Amino acid sequence: GAVVSQHPSWVICKSGTSVKIECRSLDFQATTMFWYRQFPKQSLMLMATSNEGSKATYEQGVEKDKFLINHASLTLSTLTVTSAHPEDSSFYICSAIGGDTQYFGPGTRLTVL
Amino acid sequence: GEDVEQSLFLSVREGDSSVINCTYTDSSSTYLYWYKQEPGAGLQLLTYIFSNMDMKQDQRLTVLLNKKDKHLSLRIADTQTGDSAIYFCAEKGGGGNKLTFGTGTQLKVEL
Q1: Can you give the pLDDT at residue A38?
Q2: How far apart are CA B90 and CA B4, in angstroms?
Q3: Vertex B24: Cα angle to B40 and A33 (nearest 5)
Q4: Chain B residues touching residue A42 (CB < 8 angstroms)
Q5: DSSP at B77
Q6: Spatial CB neighbours of B85, under 8 Å, sequence gap ≥ 6
């Protein structure tokens, strides 16, 4: 099946720094990718839809200046958490559309100290 | 917004069948999905069903869809300890590619 990778898988950073997370579709091209956030023992919350070559579409309540999304190619989308704070600590998961299906990456655990 | 509900926890014995249920509210759903999430990992697509189908079987997995009642179920036959995980149902509405996820059901398989 289709494969989506994320890098890094786990990152710890200091409060106030920025962190970039990469999402790649390895064996297919994805014009649309999604970024989700998941808190412990909770479901996935859609943060934004990333469209190749255009601006991302953010869900209500998600700060676009804090969570910067760049979808510069058909196989790569990046999420940058700017000026991270402890409340940004979470599990971030991306997905990419292949055909009629969304394929998910393995997730990135962000811990902000 | 649309809502997708699941029971939170299910415990079964190894070798038994597991049935995980899901209800949704979006009458324009086109596809419904089942994903598996193991601890600390992303989501693995298990199976999906198109909204005009009633049933889909794939090896140990059987998906039943009652569109009238907006009820989806996943049956896992001969449940194994490796099936212990959180299972999410998700629906895709008719308006685009966004998925709405259920709350997740934690399946625990006991020996």
Answers
A1: 92
A2: 7
A3: 50
A4: 103-104
A5: S
A6: B36, B37, B38, B39, B106, B107
What pLDDT is stored for residue A1 in this prediction?
63
| A44–B45 CB contact, under 8 Å | no
Q: What pLDDT sits at residue B28?
A: 86
Q: Which residue has the tokens 């324009």?
A: B28
Q: Can you read off the two tokens belonging to residue B3?
A: 């809502």
Contact in structure between A94 and A77 (CB atoms under 8 Å): yes
Burial of A10 by CB count in 10 Å (0-12 exposed, 13-18 middle, 19+ buried)?
Answer: exposed
User: Which residues between 68 and 87 in chain B have a beta carbon less than 8 angstroms from any beta carbon of chain A?
Assistant: none
- A72 vs B60, higher pLDDT: B60
Min mean pLDDT across A5-14, A63-72, B86-95 is at B86-95
pLDDT over 70, % of chain B: 97
